[in-house]
Design a protein that fits this description.
mainly alpha, about 70% helix, single chain
Length: about 450
């Protein structure tokens, strides 16, 4: 009997429009798959955009450099786009001098291409590179060029990324600059403008839109403002949350959980956190939300629930290779160190030291430039010191956290530190502050603990 041979069909080439639609929808792996049989300059540029979104920066740079070997075959628009993408990739890789050289080389081709949208994207890439390098003044100046009234060009050529997308990116950068100056209200306003810029654009960018919503949700978590929370929740409910956007959906749900809890809706908050756990795309993020539930359960005196959640988080942590993790994974390690402190201060200190080593290796970690991230470290260190019995240092660290949270305008965060200080006997003024803030959030989880300080603290 002869052997039956099954023919292996080659995958059918997909049209370029399918790759564009995949990118617009946030499906970057699908975009790369659809580009497998395309070799045009625009296909290479689109592949690089997908690789950048997937954080495969070296792959993006390799592809762009290969394409730029054949510059004689490229139009000014094609060469300008590829070199501008190469520049932003170099900036993201932490190679600022090479990024600036690439921007300088791209400039002439970009501005002779009769393509205003490409010019706007060029200025956005320039602003982004400067902000990454700590040059906020120069970054702001480049941002202003994108936001200036558009120049009308006769016979202007279309570009893959429209002006509205460059403007949305610029508002995100301005939000980052505002945060570096501790102007958190301005930061929130810029993030909202970034989100709304895409809201009113006919060309989709679902990944960026979801990312901006996640960033906005993180700020709502801190303010607890009901109107802002409702704004975020309405857009959460109206968005199409495909699997590739799970990280952003996780962040939105987690932030809304904390915002609800701050308003006293603990049941709703725990419900959002449960949904966040289901959406979490990685083990470290599942640990993070379990630690959130541990914290809230402790504050609500639900000790059995707290113990169960913490045990679950610790079991999950045994399978994580923290050294290979992202910035977000590193933050989970910090949170874990704080959570285990009351039961096992030795383990907590070991985890905290491990976090510090890992954070030092991550160039883009917020702890290098954002006071709020550093305050999370201070609070964790103080909590561990208190568990170790080093009450003098714990008091000093909690005082530092209290003063800076208050200076930044995050009063409920300052109140948490004040409660710790009042319990450590650091002074009646801390109990007074905690009780005053509890009165503003009378149904929140920390209000009960503040009121438990008792009237004795005020005399």
């Amino acid at each position: 009997m002869g052997t039956l041979r099954v023919a292996r069909l080659k995958p059918r080439a997909q049209p370029f429009e399918a790759a564009v639609a995949a990118f617009r929808g946030g499906r970057f792996a699908a975009c790369l798959g659809a580009l497998a049989h395309h070799s045009s300059s625009d296909a290479i540029a689109l592949a690089a955009r997908s690789l950048i979104r997937l954080n495969r920066l070296n792959d993006a740079l390799t592809s762009l450099e290969a394409a730029l070997q054949n510059v004689a075959e490229l139009s000014h628009r094609e060469r300008g786009q590829l070199q501008a993408l190469s520049a932003t990739t170099l900036a993201r890789l932490g190679r600022p001098f090479e990024a600036q050289c690439a921007l300088d080389e791209a400039r002439a081709y970009v501005f002779s291409a009769s393509c205003p949208d490409l010019e706007a994207e060029y200025y956005y890439f320039e602003a982004h590179a400067k902000v990454l390098n700590g040059e906020t003044v120069g970054g702001g100046e480049a941002c202003a060029k994108v936001l200036a009234p558009a120049v009308i060009v006769f016979g202007a050529r279309p570009h893959f990324s429209p002006l509205a997308h460059a403007r949305a990116g610029v508002f995100e950068l301005l939000a980052a600059i505002a945060a570096s100056k501790r102007s958190y209200g301005v930061q929130q306003a810029y993030l909202r403008r970034s989100f709304e810029e895409l809201d009113h654009c006919a060309v989709r960018d679902d990944w960026f839109r979801a990312t901006q919503l996640a960033h906005l949700a993180m700020l709502v978590r801190e303010t607890g403002n009901r109107d802002d929370a409702n704004y975020v929740r309405a857009r959460l409910d109206s968005s199409d949350w495909i699997e590739e956007l799970a990280p952003q959906r996780y962040e939105v749900l987690r932030s809304l959980g904390w915002a609800s809890a701050l308003c006293g809706d603990h049941l709703g908050g725990l419900r959002d956190l449960r949904a966040a756990a289901e959406a979490a795309p990685s083990v470290p993020l599942k640990i993070e939300v379990s630690l959130d539930r541990t914290y809230l359960a402790r504050e609500l005196r639900q000790e059995l629930t707290a113990r169960e959640e913490l045990d679950h988080a610790e079991r999950l942590s045994e399978s994580v290779h923290w050294e290979n993790g992202s910035r977000q994974d590193c933050d989970v390690l910090l949170q874990l160190s704080e959570a285990v402190a009351s039961d096992n201060p030795i383990k907590a200190r070991r985890l905290y030291r491990r976090y510090r080593v890992l954070r030092g290796r991550l160039r883009g970690h917020a702890g290098h430039f954002d006071d709020r991230a550093r305050l999370d470290e201070t609070t964790a260190d103080a909590t561990i010191c208190r568990a170790e019995g080093n009450l003098t240092r714990a008091t000093l660290l909690f005082q530092q956290a209290f003063e800076l949270w208050k200076e930044l305008g995050y009063n409920w965060r300052a109140a948490l530190a004040a409660i710790e200080l009042a319990e450590l006997g650091a002074g009646d003024e801390y109990a007074e502050f905690a009780l005053a803030e509890a009165a503003r959030h009378p149904n929140s989880w920390f209000a009960q603990r503040a009121r438990a300080l008792g009237s004795a603290a005020l005399h």
